[in-house]
Specification:
The chain is of the alpha+beta class and 126 residues long. The relative contact order is 0.21. The chain is globular, with a radius of gyration of 15 Å. An 8-stranded mixed beta sheet has the order 2-3-4-1-5-8-7-6. The chain has 3 helices and 8 strands; from the N terminus they run βαββββαβββα. It has a single domain, classed as Roll (2,3-Dihydroxybiphenyl 1,2-Dioxygenase, domain 1), CATH 3.10.180. Helices cover 21% and strands 42% of the residues.
Length: 126
């Protein structure tokens, strides 16, 4: 597997209001999606940051972190290589449009993900 970049970061916090206010007011992140206990920010280069309240039902596998997503050119190949290495896979590959992702637990106990984003891979000529 070859990692092409970092594309996603997610974090769960019991200080949701303070964290999202910091990201919006101090760091100047632009709020995209927003539900009760969930905020998503998309950066100018299309990277995504998601913040989950401690009791949010979204991405409950992210229990500590932050968790990050690694861009790969082939999600199926990455899944096979992770499985072959004995990595704990957290569910199955998910697909939404030209975006696919798979969560896994690293040897440090933290959650990570591999991401195949056809738009970014195509735009970069990868």
């Amino acid at each position: 597997m070859k990692v092409l970049g970092l594309v996603w970061m997610g974090t769960r916090t019991d200080r949701f209001a303070e964290t999202t206010a910091f990201f919006e007011k101090t760091m100047g992140l632009t709020l995209g999606l927003s539900y009760d206990g969930f905020r998503e920010y998309t950066l100018p280069n299309a990277d995504v940051i998601e913040v989950f309240a401690a009791d949010s039902p979204h991405n409950t596998h992210v229990t500590r972190g932050p968790a990050v997503g690694f861009l790969v050119a082939d999600i199926a190949k990455a899944e096979a290589e992770l499985a072959e290495a004995g990595t704990e896979l957290l569910g199955e590959v998910q697909h939404q449009g030209g975006y696919s992702w798979l969560y896994f637990r690293g040897p440090d106990g933290n959650v990570y993900e591999v991401v195949e984003d056809r738009r970014r891979i195509g735009a970069a000529g990868m």
